[in-house]
Amino acid sequence: MRLQRPGFTLVELLVVIAIIGVLVGLLLPAVQSAREAARRMQCTNHLKQLGLAVLNYESTYKKLPNKSGGTSALLAHAERIYGNYDRLSPFVGLLPYVEQTALYNRIQAGGETTALGIVAAGGPSAWFPRLDGTAIYFPWAQSIPTYQCPSDSIVPRPTGDHGTNSYAINMGDQVLNVNGRQQMRGPLGGFGFYKGLGEVTDGTSNTIVFSERTAHNADNANDGVLRTANGSQLISRFEAQVTNIQNSPSSCNAVVISGRYAPGTRLKARFGILWTDGQAERTCFNTVLGPNKPSCFGDANLAADSGTVVLPASSMHTGGVNAVSLDGSVRFISDSIDTGNTSAIQAVPTGQSLYGAWGALGTISGGEVTQIEN
């Protein structure tokens, strides 16, 4: 008698492979969804830490941190190492409250040696070091874990000389003159101005302090260059030049085709690669156009100093953004939140916001009655 070995036929093997392929196809989206849920939860936790950091800062100093502040220095000094020029973002002042006390103390102590000289106490200019990476300042080059959202893949500058960030400061519902010495309608004030919790008459739970902005992962090595869109650039990764936004913020939408900037649109990318700078395009957003809408600047500035801007919150999460309020609570804000009349503008914003529930959440004393929706 012949002894026959058990085995698979070719057809049976192909059937098994097909079944495995189907199972992988079914399971992979679930695995990816679970991973994104975990990343979103971590992102939420980081915003929660930022919200508590602001409250702890206020408890210490009896005022909220500032959108832009620090110590002055002689502006004529070309190397910008003898003072920080009143332009540090609140992310610097919040370092002790996000478990970065040692780094904060190092900044305040000064004496750091760079290729351009010894840095003064309080740190150099917010935009130091040089773009070519020849004079790296260690504290400014650090990417703070609490300032990063794991859902957003940030590409550091090629020289690695600046730390990155995924979160942005709420300026309020202002579009014009966002970098000058005037108050902002958001909770953290403007250049050289400070606010207290007592001024938040709309309620701390109804006032956003931080949200997300997707990092601008292009052209970050040279602030003096704009690129021309070819139809592939995502609206979340760039900022478009649109000269009519000083009259109608919604004109930003005119240069968008299916979530990308139309060919020929002039673009720059300035957010997410300089967490120390209080300039609007570096670390801020405004509550005008809703989450995940296009960002625009209304002048010819090539760097990050445009004074007329529409900078929506944005994220890599599906359907909206996370945001933390002044009471420390974190909510998910839908892309479809009411934004009122985005075809109009308030030259001197006072009273109720023109921009619906979203604008109301950006202001501290507009007098609106609204709540953040899950």
Detailed description of the structure:
- This protein has about 375 residues and is α+β, with helices and mostly antiparallel strands.
- The protein has one domain.
- It is built from five helices and 14 strands.
- The chain has a five-stranded mixed β-sheet with strand order 10-3-4-13-14.
- The N and C termini lie far apart (about 75 Å).
- The model has no long low-confidence stretch (mean pLDDT about 85).
Structural class: alpha+beta
Distance between the termini: 74 Å
Oligomeric form: single chain
Q: How would you write the strand order of the largest sheet?
A: 10-3-4-13-14
Number of strands: 14
Give the total of domains. Answer: 1
Write the layout of secondary structure elements.
Blueprint: H1 10-61, H2 90-93, H3 101-109, E1 113-114, E2 117-118, E3 167-170, E4 208-212, E5 227-228, E6 239-241, E7 256-257, E8 260-261, E9 266-268, H4 280-283, E10 284-285, E11 295-297, E12 309-310, E13 320-325, E14 330-334, H5 356-362
Parallel strand pairs: 3-10, 6-11
Antiparallel strand pairs: 1-2, 3-4, 4-13, 5-9, 6-9, 7-8, 11-12, 13-14
